Amino acid sequence: MNETIAAPSEPDAVDRLRAIGREFHGRGWSLGTSSNYSVVASREPLELLITVSGKDKSALGRDDFVRVDATGRPVDGCGKKSSAETLLHCLLAELIPSVGAVLHTHSVWSTILSGADLERGSLRIEGYEMLKGLAGIATHDTIEEVPIFANSQDMASLAEEIRTRFAAADWSNPTRPPFHGFLLARHGLYTWGRDLDEARRHIEIHEFLFEVVARSRMLTAAT
């Protein structure tokens, strides 16, 4: 994941993120005030445009965004507050230089599966055609391990746990990253992409696969 894409203008990014909020709310992935979305606005220095905390994602306004630095602090002293999880967005943008957008959702299936497989440490997804919707995957004959981390209100500690897990993974293949997202247990999904289009697609692919895995388990248990 070495290729980078130019950041969109701030007005364009705001319009796209508002549209994503409406879509994700309509599909049951970002209900109430859950979820947060960001776009990398600058690399040098690292700055992100991210949703303000506590906003209904189906009705995001143009002022419901804040620009933050690499530590998650607002850069313009505007007084707006982003989610405590902003630090995780900043971490992903720092660790993966090609990241242009980070999206976080709270779907029913991701909430259920992330709790069920927490002890295992990851959710295994294997053999499905839709895996080819994730960047760098060219065949259904593959395995995607989605890391799962225990949910925590201590964002600094959680960020370090994620950093350690990422550092231990094999990122040597520039076209096939070791994973495309991670789960917080009983909480939801984080995924990313080179731009908003790719990040949005990764949400859609993950959410489809989560539902398939969960329903398959239900069918197996019923037989």
Explain how this protein is built:
With 223 residues, the protein is of the alpha+beta class. It has one domain: Class II aldolase/adducin N-terminal domain (L-fuculose-1-phosphate Aldolase), CATH 3.40.225.10. It has five helices and eight strands; from the N terminus they run H-E-E-E-H-E-H-E-E-H-E-E-H. It has an eight-stranded mixed beta sheet with strand order 3-2-1-4-8-7-6-5, with helices on both faces. Strand 1 and strand 2 form a beta hairpin. The model has no long low-confidence stretch (mean pLDDT 93).
Question: Total number of β-strand segments?
Answer: 8
Q: Low-confidence parts lasting 5 or more residues at pLDDT below 50?
A: none
How confident is the prediction overall: mean pLDDT? 93
> Tell me about the biggest sheet?
8 strands, mixed
Total helical segments: 5
Series of H and E elements:
HEEEHEHEEHEEH
Net shape: globular
Percentage of β-strand residues: 15-25%
Tell me the CATH topology.
L-fuculose-1-phosphate Aldolase
- CATH homologous superfamily designation: Class II aldolase/adducin N-terminal domain
Q: Could you say which structural class the secondary elements and strand pairing correspond to?
A: alpha+beta
Gross CATH architecture? 3-Layer(aba) Sandwich
Distance from first to last alpha carbon: 42 Å
